Amino acid sequence: MIESYLPQASTFAGDIDWLFSMVFWIVGAWFLVCSGVFFWLVFKFRVPNGSQATAEYITGEEKSQKRWVTIPHLLVLFCDVFIIYGAVKVWYDVKQYLPPPDQEIQIIAQQWAWTFVHPGADQKFDTADDIHTVNELRLQEDAVYHYHLSSNDVMHDFSVPVFRLKQDAIPGRVITGWFTPTESGEFDIQCAEICGIGHGLMPARLVVEDAAAHTAWLAERSPVKLAAVTSPVVEN
Amino acid sequence: MIRTPKIALIAFVISCMFIVAPVSAEDEHARGRQLYALCAQCHGQNGAGAQLFLAPAIAGLDQWYVQSQFLLFQSGVRGLNWQDVGGLRMHPMSQWVKGDADVAAVSAYVASLPRVNPPPQVVGGNAETGKALYSTCASCHGVDGKGNEAMNAPPLIHASDWYLVSSLEKYKAGIRGSNPKNTNAIIMRGMSNLLPNDQAIKDVVAYITTMNNEGN
User: Fold this and answer.
1) Which of A96, A127, A162 is the last residue of a domain?
2) Cβ contact B93–A134 (<8 Å)
3) Which of A57, A231, B60, B161 has the fewest Cβ atoms within 10 angstroms?
4) How many domains does chain B have?
C-alpha cells in the first residue's frame, strides 16, 4: 500500500511498511467497529417522539454493563500482542542487529548541512584518501553499509524516507546503524529534528548506483590515487 | 465581433502584470529591513554578529561586498566545503532570499547599518608586530583597512576579530580559496600563506582592530 506512494529502497523498508500497515488495519478496524457500535447504540436507545422518559445514569457496575468494557479490552490486548511482537521484531532487525558490513560511511550533521565521509581505498577513516561530500550521499546498490552518525552542534535526525530510516544524531555521541540500498536512483534525505532556523533548508540527495558506477565515482573523487595509498609510507 | 475586444482586454491585463513598477530607495530600504529580520537571527539586529552562531559582524560593510558574497553563498561557490562550518550554515540561509532585487535590497540594508566595534575575542596578538605584517594586506585592503572595491578587497576594520582569524586560518588550510570559480578567494589564499603561523595571524588581526577607533 505505502510502496505505491513511496518506493521501498532498503532491505528493511518492507518490514517497516508491514508493521505500519498492520497497526493501520488493526486500529482502523477497531475505529470502524467502535463507530458502528456507538451509532447503533445512539439509534437503538433514542427517545421516541412524545416520550417523557429521561436519561438514566449508569454506574457501570452491573455485569451486563461491564461486559461492554472488559470484552473489547481483552480483544484490544489480544491485538496488542501482534503489534508488540511485530514492533519488537522490526526494532531488533533494524536498530539492534548489525549484519557484517561491506562498506562503512560517516554521516556528520551540522546546522544546516550533511557531510558524508567515505573511507576511500584503504577502508580507513581519518586518512588522506577519505572522500568528503556535502549534501550528497552516494551508495552502492545491494551493499551492506554501516553508518556512523554524529552531530557537530545540536540534535538532528538522519531521515531517508525511501529507506524507512530515521535516526537521531546526538551531540557527543557516535551512533552506528546499518542499511542496504536495494534500488538505484536519486532520493531525498532530510533532517527530521527541528535544529534551528535553517532546519527547513537542510535537505540532501541520496544517489544509489550499481557497483561499477559507484567504484568509478569513488576512484574519480578520491583525493589520493590508489597507487599512492598502497605504496610504502615513509615515516618522518 | 465580441471576441476580439475580449482577447484584447485579456492581453492588456496580462501585459499589465509584467509591468514592473520602479522601486524607490525607500521601498528598497523597507524591503531590505524586512528581509534582514531573518539574518538578524544570527547576525543580530544591529549586525554586530555573534561568535556563538559563527556569525560575524556585517553592519556597515560595503554593499558590493555583501552582495557578491551573498551570491557566492547562494550558488554554492562559497560555503560548501565540508570543513567550513560557518559557511555551511550561511549557504542554506542565503537560499531564503530569492531574486537579484531582494539580494540587492538586503545587501543595501546591511550596508546602511551603522558600523559597530565588535568586542575583542582573540587574545595573544601583538599589534606592533602585526603592523609590519599588515603592509602586505594594505596593498589591496588599504592602509586604513577600508578596503578597495577596484581590487575586490573588502573592508577589514569593524570586522569581528575571531572571524578575521578563522578566515585567515581557512584560507591557509585551503578550506576557502580552493574553488576555481572564486578567483578572489584564490588570490587571498595565496596571500594568507605569507603569514607564517598562527601567531602571525593573531598579530595582524590585533593590528587591524586598532584601526577601528582611528577616526574610521
Assistant:
1) A96
2) no
3) A57
4) 2
